[in-house]
Design brief:
Layout: H1 3-20, E1 25-29, H2 32-40, E2 51-55, H3 60-63, H4 66-76, E3 81-85, E4 105-107, H5 111-120, E5 125-130, H6 137-150, E6 155-159, H7 164-172, E7 181-184, H8 186-192, E8 206-209, H9 214-229, E9 236-237, H10 249-258, E10 259-266, E11 270-279, H11 288-291, H12 307-311, H13 335-338, H14 343-350
Helix pairs in contact: 1-9, 2-14, 5-6, 6-10
Bound molecules: iron/sulfur cluster.
C-alpha cells in the first residue's frame, strides 16, 4: 500500500477504535515479532486509554526454560559434541553462564547448516537445538528426514519446540484472567492456517490473526475491538495475503511425520501438557535427549527476574527492579532482555 494511504488510514482507524471501545479491553499479542512491531511503530500511543496490550508467551527464546538452557550448555561442554543453534540462544543466561560460553557452539541460520556441519565434521556429534513454534518445527522435521535419508550417524536434535494452542488454552483457563482478546501470530498462522484456532470459538475471548505493518496491526485491532464489542469469539483472519484457511498443509504434515506432542516446560509457566514436540520413536536415533546423558535438575529463574510473569501478561518490564539498571541488552539477566523479540528488550529500545 502507498505510504500516503497508510498515513491517512492509520489516524482514521485510531479514531474508530477509540469510538468503539466503550469499555476496558486487554489484548495479548502472542508473537515476539508483534511485540517488537507494536513497540517500534508506537502503536500503543495510537490507542485510547480503554485498551491495554500485554505480551504473551510468543517469543521462542523467552519461553525456553532455564532447565533446557542448562541442558544445551551441558551439551556444548561435552567433548566431541558441536551444538548448532540460532543466534539469540547463545546469549541467554543459564544458571551460571550462557550457552555462548560453552566449549563447542556454532551459530547457524538454517537447520540445513547443521546438516552441512555434520557432513563436514564426521568426527563430531552435531546437535541442532530445536526451539520455536509451529513455524520452525517443520524445518527441523525436514532436517531430521534428510539426515535419515543420508544415514548421517553424527546428527541429532534436542527438541524444545512448543505449540501455541496449548499455551492459549492455559491462559484461558485462568479464572482471574482479564484478557478480552488475542492478537494471533502471523508467521505461525501462515503454517497452521486459520482453522487451527477454531477451538477459541468456545471461549469468551475474541481473536485476530495480524500482520506486522502498522496498517496491518491497526486494522487488526479495529476488527478485534469490533468483535469484542459484539461478543464474537470466532477467530478472524486479518492477514489473508499470507494466512490461508488450511495453512501450509505440507509443512504441518512434515512436522507431524517426525514429531508427536509431549509435555514440556515453559519458562515461568511450568509444564503444559502436550504442548511440546518430541521425536517419534522411529526417529529416536536422531534424538539428542536419548543419545546423551543430560541433566534433569530443575534450574530456578534468575533471582528477581519477572520474565515468567511478563510472558503470562501479568507484569510489565518496568515493574522489574532490574529493568534498565542491572538488566540491559548488553548485560541481560533474563531472556526477555536477550531476545530481539523479547518484551524487555522492546521496552528498553522504544519506551
Ligand atoms: S528486565 Fe531483565 S530481569 Fe527483569 S524481567 Fe526483564 S529480563 Fe528479567
Amino acid at each position: 500500500m502507498h505510504s500516503a494511504t497508510v498515513k491517512e488510514k492509520v489516524p482514521l482507524l485510531s479514531e474508530e477504535i477509540a469510538r468503539l471501545a466503550t469499555r476496558p479491553l486487554t489484548f495479548m499479542e502472542v508473537c515476539g515479532t508483534h511485540t517488537m512491531a507494536i513497540a517500534r511503530h508506537g502503536i500503543k500511543s495510537l490507542l485510547p486509554p480503554a485498551i491495554s496490550i500485554v505480551s504473551g508467551p510468543g517469543c521462542p527464546v523467552c519461553v525456553t526454560s532455564a532447565t533446557d538452557i542448562e541442558r544445551a550448555i551441558t551439551l556444548g561442554d561435552t567433548p566431541g559434541v558441536l551444538v548448532a543453534t540460532f543466534g539469540d540462544m547463545i546469549k541467554v543466561p543459564g544458571e551460571k553462564r550462557t550457552l555462548g560460553s560453552a566449549t563447542n557452539v556454532k551459530v547457524i541460520y538454517s537447520p540445513l547448516d547443521a546438516l552441512e556441519l555434520a557432513r563436514k565434521s564426521p568426527h563430531l556429534q552435531v546437535v541442532l537445538l530445536g526451539i520455536g513454534f509451529e513455524t520452525t518445527a517443520p524445518l527441523m522435521a525436514a532436517a531430521v528426514l534428510q539426515a535419515r535419508r543420508e544415514a548421517l550417524p553424527n546428527f541429532s536434535t534436542l527438541s524444545m519446540h512448543k505449540m501455541v494452542p496449548q499455551a492459549l488454552s492455559l491462559l484461558l483457563s485462568d479464572e482471574n484472567s482479564a484478557l478480552s482478546g488475542f492478537i494471533l501470530p502471523g508467521h505461525v498462522s501462515a503454517i497452521t492456517g486459520r482453522k487451527y484456532y477454531n477451538f477459541l470459538e468456545g471461549s469468551a475471548v475474541s481473536s485476530v490473526i495480524a500482520g506486522f505493518e502498522p496498517l496491518d496491526i491497526m486494522e487488526s485491532l479495529y476488527r478485534l475491538v469490533q468483535a469484542c464489542m459484539a461478543h464474537d469469539c470466532r477467530p478472524i483472519n486479518n492477514y489473508p495475503r499470507i494466512v490461508k484457511e488450511e495453512g501450509n498443509t505440507k509443512a504441518m504434515e512434515t512436522l507431524f511425520r517426525v514429531f508427536e506432542p509431549c509435555d514440556t516446560s515453559w519458562r515461568g509457566i511450568g509444564t503444559i501438557p502436550l504442548s511440546g514436540l518430541a521425536l517419534k520413536e522411529e526417529f529416536a536415533q536422531f534424538d539428542a535427549s536419548a543419545r546423551f546423558d543430560l541433566p534433569t535438575r530443575e534450574i530456578p529463574e534468575p533471582k528477581g527476574c519477572l520474565c515468567g510473569a511478563i510472558l503470562m501478561g501479568k507484569a510489565l518490564p518496568d515493574s522489574c527492579r532490574h529493568f534498565g539498571t542491572a538488566c540491559t541488552p548488553s548485560f541481560p539477566i533474563g531472556p526477555c532482555m536477550v531476545s530481539t523479540e523479547g518484551t524487555c528488550a522492546a521496552w528498553f529500545k522504544y519506551h
